[in-house]
Amino acid sequence: MAATRRLSHTVAVITINHPPVNALSSSVRHAIVKEFGEATKDPSVKAIVLAGANGKFSAGADIREFATSALKTVSLEDINATIEASRKPVVAAIEGVALGGGLELALACHFRVASAQSRVGLPEVLIGILPAAGGTQRLPRLIGVPAALDVIVRGRHVPATEALQIGIVDEVVQGNVVNAAIQLARTVIGTDLGKRRLSTNFVPSNPNMESFLDTTAEKAKKQFRGAQAPLACIEAVRASVQKPYQHGIEKEKQLFLSLWATGQPQAQQYAFFSERNVGKWTHPSGGRWDTIAPKPVRTAAVIGLGTMGRGIAISLARANIPVIALEQDASQLEFGKKAVNALLEREAEKLIKQGLTPAASLASVRFTLDFTELCDVDFVIEAVYENMELKKEIFRKLASVCKPDAFLCTNTSGLDIDEIASVTKHPHLVIGTHFFSPANIMRLLEVVRGHHTSLMTIATAMTLGKTLGKVAVLVGNCPLFVGNRLLGPYLEQANYLLEEGCNPEDVDRALEDFGFAMGPFRMMDLAGLDVGWRSRMEKGLTGNKVPEGTPARQRHGNRYSPVADMLCELGRFGQKAGKGWYQYEKPGGRFAQPDPWVKDFLQKYRDTHQIKPRPSNPELILERCLYALINEGFRVLEDGIASGPEDIDVIYNNGYGWPKHRGGPMYYASTVGVAKVLDVLDQYHKENPDVPSMKPAFLLKKLAAVGGPPIKEWRTQVGKLTNKL
Ligand code: 3H9
Fold first, then answer.
1. Measured from the CB, is residue 61 less than 6 Å from ligand 1?
2. Going by CATH, does the domain composed of 618-724 fall within 3.20.20.80?
3. What is the rounded distance in angstroms from the CA atom of residue 129 to the CA atom of residue 558?
4. Average pLDDT of the chain?
5. What are the φ/ψ torsions at residue 553 (nearest 5 degrees)?
6. Per-residue pLDDT reduced to its tens digit, 362-385
7. Is residue 280 in contact with ligand 1, taking CB distance under 6 Å?
8. Which residues form the catalytic set?
9. What separation in angstroms does the CA of 27 have from each of 1, 14, 65, 79?
10. What CA–CA distance (Å, rounded) separates 542 from 534?
11. What would be the CATH architecture of the domain defined by 3-125+135-199?
């Protein structure tokens, strides 16, 4: 039964029951209409409580229905209108979550009681749409325009205590929320519900309202770079101000339809489901880890308290896992300890202010210089800097001090997991856990499977990732894994574009207008140009290891751009040096300004190498950089390093600032059309045979040859075409 009804004295309790999240699918909506209709007709019922089974009120509309005609049957807004008009008081009993259509349903009720741990919100914007069952009209009527915009445009989940403070709910209770709602319902029987019918109220306004809305829209344009849903949310709320409810509802509907036509909701909903499905597929390197029971992680250790190690330790402590943090140097240990403790204290204060109990206490992290203290730990994460010899030395020590069944993980961003595992006695317990910086904030976790890694080790690392609130994606072991591997050809093209006549800001602008949080040159400046320089030096691509007689713009017979190396030789390491591809107000400054020196330098470089600048435009910049990245994505699939295009997209959406409203690089390729991607790459490669990364991938060619199927069919196509998966 999608919804059930029982009577508690004179109060009918209607319970939505549609696991796992009580999504308001067509069958649920029909059931609510039936039960509500019968409760209103029943003379013994004097009030109604609306609740959700399985500890959740409702996560909103069933997102899978958007692409079907089921959405049209029994509209949620019609249900809301009926509930609101009821002469019998209706109380929502909110447990777990009331999100999207779930909160809209609760807003149509006359009263709302929430459990202390629950969260409410209108997160539709995160899946490319706007609240379309009256949410953009009822919420401003309840809490005013600024607070409503803050909730709707950011799509944030509001904790119950805050929801009480800002007026979304009427009561927050510690105990049984349904009993509390029944109690409240009894006290309001026969009272005047006039003001409680939000649609009949007017939204308070003031003479500055229009300019406030304009400023909010301008800020949203900058912040959300090309995403249409936040702007549509603001327009819908604008339509609520001093206008009758019906006017706003019409606008809400119209905006919903126009958003759907942009293709952005489809991309964001693809991203939503990809994130939830990632890890459920059979990995090319064999086996279903999700059928294996993970081992419990009761205690953990982190080796190295640099930026990464500190972030990882905080993430573990927040998940209530006691951590031992180890450094090899006393002053580094002290520095790390202060930084970790300060952050945990700040977070605890914030949570306490919100009426919540912090999971992590300062006692959750213990600091030590002594390896032998790790003898009983279940899960160790090494997070020292990228140096194979150092990592091996640490793993040798771990193998000798840790218990034999401890999982040993490395936070490398691209080194060979098998080589690291080779120095231990139990390579099946070794796995890569590639966190992204700052690890306490970034959601992505690449879990890297080595040749010997067991399914149980994978299951434990993936489950721990979820416990830490990360999006964990299982990838194969190859240099740079997935995310950083795709970045190589992307940055290479960005560099070539400079040689050919662009300035860093031209390239960055094109990619930022596309929706990236940061263009490649600003990103390199932030990360530090010396990082890549050192790695190129180690590979013998620059410095004195380059064989004599090698032309400046070639390595191993292929094209090479030495421009970034030349900047590094001049100490232009990026933001930390106050200059790199841009100039900054001071070393460590944050405001990148185009640097006339760089422009001049690039022109001299072109003159020296007799390069005639070519005309460029944003479209060409996008094609060159993005298709290079996508092409490498196809190679990653061919090699069985990612299990499907969705994995690559989840990695880019969550770790590399890819604009979610474009779904991810592989999804983007499917919308542009694989035939077009192939054409552009083919043409470029014919003209530039010395750039192997632009040679169209075998898989791309094959997909184009079978007519460019929709992305949901790629996984099977990949299997058929490569015979590897
Ligand atoms: C809306 O309401 C529109 C209205 O304004 C107007 C309409 C006209 N639909 O995330 P989890 C599935 S739009 C369908 O792993 P958690 C999810 O795919 C909606 N399915 O759990 C997964 O399936 P599976 C606005 C949904 O505990 C399973 O539930 N609401 C929906 O980490 C468990 O999900 C939102 O945007 C859904 N609405 O997090 C809320 N929600 O087991 C979206 C979840 O097959 N949902 N599923 O993999 C969430 O934010 C999280 O799922 C939630 C639970 C916080 C609820």
1. yes
2. no
3. 46
4. 94
5. -105, 30
6. 678 999 999 999 999 999 999 998
7. no
8. 104, 124
9. 9, 15, 11, 13
10. 9
11. Alpha-Beta Complex (3.90)
